[in-house]
Design a protein that fits this description.
Helices cover about 25% and strands about 20% of the residues. It is an alpha+beta fold. Helix 2 packs antiparallel against helix 7 and helix 5 packs antiparallel against helix 7. The longest helix is centred in the first third of the chain and has 14 residues. The chain is elongated and about 80 Å long.
Length: about 525
């Protein structure tokens, strides 16, 4: 039977990402500035994790400017009060709940005033049986939907529960209860275990409530897409490698849980994998041009609790420079109800063929810890990190010099090799000049940029000799980040400072050399390098 409803059912969906919600808020502010009736004309808010906090804030006060103030004010203060013990939550969930109660008091999901979906996951329990012999009874874990769109007799008969009697404050807190970052909320943990993106679930709820697919329109507002990959050859990996990785500097996976010492590929695939555009692809298949996904690609990983100015500026820059024209067109067509005409769906152009991506053969696969590399600056000049004067002496400067041929007899002073350091996520870069000399940040990290030199391994230089790779927005180029904290931080949050990376500069002596410089996402070419294997 055709739907008796008229017009469009409009959904704004917000995904997870902690402080990266600043990007979402900035995108929303731009949409709102173009059409101040946007939120009034939105029929449903759907949220996961920080997206649930955004939805909760909008339910209390539909003004995106308040979201910007939240993410640049109270959220920073909250994230800078970090507990760094891995056996305790990094932050207090009770503080999050208190802030949500202040917004909504005792209002329940059923009293939200707008259709809403907040997602979470309940870890289950074992509880004493009521009645019977009083045995301990297991209660299985399950995904949770907090929504006011389920609750009919048929919903219950079909096993669908909306948990609409839950307080809005409890539902929003539950959705953002990331393990490691926060404790659980009544056994509920972060919505990422449901899915980072609740859009498709929101579409399903609209269908369940009598809307037809051609009447539904949705915009997903992301927190930034961050590409991940494994450069490692996983063909023979066992449980150890899948759980803890294998120490490959080109594997772009990060510790997913806060205070987690090292990355876990299988955990990242299971959780970060749910934010790799699968839901937008399915939503697009369902809705066609009545769906838009606003999710800029970020050049590198930004932790969910990052508070440094570089990261915050990058989030806002990414949102402000992203093309929102398709979303504005959709708002005009569907939110504003400017027309009741249904869009014509054109056949997809299938004339072009796409060649499958070839899997590297074993002979082509690079094993970083067995390979020597030129480290070449991101520049039109073919210049690489070079030991000045081909010196074998400790303290020799690392400069920029034209790349030599692989067969040059003195090429060793331009070649570097990764070595495991024994610390997860950090590597040594050893010169192949012939002596046991390693890339080292030398000198004070305040004031003038410290030089990069070669030094033997020394305990007092430990952090200055440890490096990791951070991808940039230009694929194949990396920031080479040093482990040394550049300046003492007023916060215990390790993501509150701007890291030091290798950069290139020319000082008074006229030598173009490598220095330790503060990371700058806007000016990245002289701070980024490619690794060219020598095989």
């Amino acid at each position: 039977m055709a739907s008796q409803k008229t017009g469009y059912y409009t959904i704004l969906s917000f995904v997870g990402g902690g402080i990266r919600g600043l990007l979402s808020a900035t995108l929303l502010q731009r949409l709102f500035a173009a059409d101040t009736q946007l939120l009034n004309q939105t029929k449903m808010y759907a949220g996961c994790s920080t997206g649930s906090i955004i939805s909760s804030e909008l339910l209390a006060d539909p003004d995106p400017a308040n979201l910007i103030s939240l993410f640049t004010g109270n959220e920073l203060n909250f994230y800078n009060k970090m507990n760094i013990r891995p056996d305790k939550p990094a932050y207090s969930i009770d503080e999050v709940l208190a802030s949500q109660v202040q917004l909504h008091q005792n209002n329940k999901i059923s009293q939200a005033g707008k259709d809403v979906l907040l997602v979470s996951f309940n870890v289950g329990s074992v509880e004493k049986e009521e009645g019977g012999i009083g045995k301990m009874m297991p209660k299985a874990w399950k995904p949770m939907m907090f929504t006011n769109m389920l609750g009919t007799a048929q919903d219950k008969a079909d096993g669908l529960e909306g948990n609409s009697n839950t307080l809005i404050a409890v539902a929003a807190t539950s959705s953002g209860s990331m393990p490691g970052q926060l404790g659980s909320m009544d056994g509920n943990v972060d919505g990422c275990f449901f899915n980072h993106d609740p859009t498709v679930a929101a579409i399903a709820l609209a269908l369940r409530n009598g809307w037809e697919l051609h009447q539904i329109a949705a915009i997903t507002i992301g927190t930034g897409y961050m590409p991940y990959w494994l450069q490692s050859d996983t063909h023979d990996w066992g449980a150890e490698q899948w759980m803890n990785g294998e120490g490959n500097p080109f594997d772009n996976i990060t510790p997913f849980l806060m205070n987690q010492k090292g990355s876990s590929p299988v955990l990242d695939m299971s959780l970060n994998g749910t934010s790799t555009e699968l839901m937008p692809q399915i939503a697009k298949m369902l809705l066609g041009d009545r769906y838009v996904n606003l999710n800029p690609t970020l050049p590198c990983f930004i932790p969910e609790n990052s508070t440094n100015s570089q990261a915050l500026a990058l989030l806002q820059d990414s949102a402000n420079s992203f093309d929102i024209s398709k979303a504005l067109d959709l708002i005009k067509r569907c939110w504003s109800n400017a027309t009741q005409e249904l869009p014509v769906r054109l056949a997809e152009n299938t004339s072009a063929s796409v060649a499958p991506t070839a899997t590297p053969s074993a002979s082509e696969h690079i094993v970083p810890l067995e390979t020597q590399f030129f480290i070449r600056q991101n520049s039109s000049k073919p210049q690489v990190l070079d030991i000045m004067g081909a010196s074998h002496k400790a303290g020799a400067r690392v400069i920029l010099w034209e790349q030599k041929t692989k067969t040059s007899p003195d090429v060793g002073n331009q070649l570097w090799k990764f070595e495991k350091s024994g610390e997860a996520g950090w590597w040594l870069l050893k010169s192949q000049i012939g002596a046991d000399l390693y890339l080292t940040l030398t000198g004070n990290t305040t004031g003038a940029d410290p030089q990069i030199t070669i030094q033997p391994l020394r305990a007092d230089l430990r952090d200055r000799q440890l490096w990791n790779l951070v991808p940039t927005k230009e694929p194949g180029y990396y920031y080479i980040q040093n482990k040394l904290v550049p300046t003492p931080s007023l916060s215990v949050n390790p993501d509150s400072y701007v890291p030091t990376v290798i950069g290139v500069g020319t000082k008074d002596d006229g030598v173009t050399a490598a220095y330790g410089m503060s990371l700058n996402y806007r000016v990245y070419s002289n701070l980024s390098f490619a690794f060219i294997p020598v095989k």
